[in-house]
Amino acid sequence: MTAPHSVPARPTAFTFDPGTVALLVIDMQRDFLLPGGFGESLGNDVALLQAVVEPLAALIAAARAADVPVIHTREGHLPDLSDCPPAKLLRGNPSQRIGDPGRFGRILIRGEYGHDIVDELAPVAGEVVIDKPGKGAFYATELSEVLGRKGIETLLVTGVTTEVCVHTTVREANDRGYRCLVVSDCVGSYFPEFQRVGLDMIAAQGGIFGWVADSAAVVTALTPTAAGSTPAR
């Protein structure tokens, strides 16, 4: 084990072994972030999610420089929608539904342009991309196996949206024994109040689901590993 690193965080300082940590980037997809996409068709202000891109790009760069694995997820479904239950497909009364033609192809369908990750955060060769049919990154995916193979014990969690896919994933991870640090300016919500409360809920009651810190503190903690003390995985 390498020397532990420490991040100022809520509710207490967060320490981690840089050899057993991974950066998880949740659902930074065009359908959710770009004007004219699915998120905007639901009446949301996508600028609130776009604000995450710049700090998250810097955090991803720091993780790559430190040889910390970066794992991306994408929410979406098979073209025949066989993995999209009616409770999800038919919810609400939106102008467009999953599978409908949208500005960036069929909405949230694997292989379509809108389903993929925004250019600024695109995975590089060798990074794992997990395609998930649900909100949580563990449900019906290979994420547990990937983390096990890499010896991961701690997750730096980022992405969108804070109160839905990020929260679901952190809760699932917590139940599986992973320690989670949610990076506050690298997660985003269409609803500012949900953003605030979602982060408060993570750190409440002594860190009931995990810890919360901003990206500047995490980047500072990662930087010493860039000298090469931790082997690439």
Describe what you observe in this structure.
By secondary structure, the chain is an alpha/beta fold. It has nine helices and ten strands. It has helices at 30-33, 38-41, 47-50, 53-65, 86-89, 143-150, 162-175, 192-207, 215-222; strands at 5-7, 14-16, 21-26, 70-75, 101-102, 105-106, 128-132, 154-160, 179-188, 211-213. The strands form three sheets. Strands 7-4-3-8-9-10 form a six-stranded parallel beta sheet, sandwiched between helices. It has a two-stranded antiparallel sheet with strand order 1-2. A two-stranded antiparallel sheet has the order 5-6.
Q: Measure the end-to-end span.
A: 14 Å
Q: Which descriptor suits the 3D outline?
A: globular
Please tally the β strands and state the result. 10
Oligomer: single chain
**Series of secondary-structure elements, N-terminal to C-terminal:** EEEHHHHEHEEEHEHEHEH
Task: Using brief descriptors, characterize the structure shown.
233 residues, alpha/beta, 6-stranded parallel beta sheet, two-stranded antiparallel ribbon, 9 helices, 10 strands, 32% helix, globular
Task: Offer a concise description of the structure.
The protein is an alpha/beta fold. It has helices at residues 30-33, 38-41, 47-50, 53-65, 86-89, 143-150, 162-175, 192-207, 215-222; strands at 5-7, 14-16, 21-26, 70-75, 101-102, 105-106, 128-132, 154-160, 179-188, 211-213.
Write the layout of secondary structure elements.
Layout: E1 5-7, E2 14-16, E3 21-26, H1 30-33, H2 38-41, H3 47-50, H4 53-65, E4 70-75, H5 86-89, E5 101-102, E6 105-106, E7 128-132, H6 143-150, E8 154-160, H7 162-175, E9 179-188, H8 192-207, E10 211-213, H9 215-222
Parallel strand pairs: 3-4, 3-8, 4-7, 8-9, 9-10
Antiparallel strand pairs: 1-2, 5-6
